[in-house]
Amino acid sequence: MKKTLSLIAALLFCSMAMVAQEKSFSKMPENITIKTSDGKAVQTSEIKNDGKPMIISFWATWCKPCLRELNTIKDVYGDWQDETGVKLVAVSIDDSRTSARVKTMAESSAWDYEVYIDQNQDLKRAMNVVNVPHTFIVDGNGNIVWQHTAFVEGSEEELIELIRKLNKGEDISE
User: Quick count: other Cβ atoms within 10 Å of Cβ 25?
Assistant: First the structure.
């Protein structure tokens, strides 16, 4: 009986923690400094898309699934922008040892995304990113309405479908 009560208490605590965590990430953090790939400091409050949705993709130069995701989306990104107005923001979590590769990788990959570096991983922590790739959809009001980790071929189709639904005013929250 004691073990059962302990288990129930633990499950209840975990459930409450998950609800609290979910609520704490309902808005895109605004007062965090990250850098452009050229080293210029930018506040996250400056990252906007004129009331249209944004995709925030956390990635790293050493993460193969991250690179596959960003390169796969690159091929259809222009069409996505024309159709939905979506903007993709690629946020590298590379540290001081590997962050020098970010700009070169983005340019050699011909990504037409805004690329930022979260070298101190302040934004990563604020958004509770544990593993990369970690992708968020942020609505035009700065609300985080969807998130997903990992990448498999075809995930990009789910992503654009969610953006289309969001543009129609449909609920896409998990």
Answer: 15
Element counts in the chain: helices (H) and strands (E): 5, 7
pLDDT digits (tens, 9 = 90+) for 67-126: 999 999 999 999 999 999 999 999 999 999 999 999 999 999 999 999 999 999 999 999
How far apart are the C-alpha atoms of 168 and 162, rounded to whole Å? 10
Q: Which residues, in sequence order, are CB contacts of 15 under 8 Å at separation 6+?
A: none
From 169, 102, 91, 94, select the one nearest 136 (Cα to Cα).
Answer: 91
Helix axes 64-84, 155-167, angle to 10 degrees: 30
Any bridge partners for residue 59, and if so which?
92
Phi then psi for residue 17, to 5 deg, are -65, -40
Tokens standing for residue 148: 């997903």
Q: Which of 130, 127, 132 is nearest to 146 (CA)?
A: 127
Closest by CA position to 117, among listed 50, 42, 65: 42
Q: Which residues are CB-neighbours of 136 under 8 A, at least 6 positions away?
A: 55, 56, 57, 127, 144, 146, 147
- pTM beyond 0.90: the answer is no
Q: Which residue has 């210029």 as its token pair?
A: 40
Q: For the chain, give the mean pLDDT.
A: 88
What CA–CA distance (Å, rounded) separates 58 from 37? 14
Quickly tell me which residue has 């991983």 as its tokens: 121
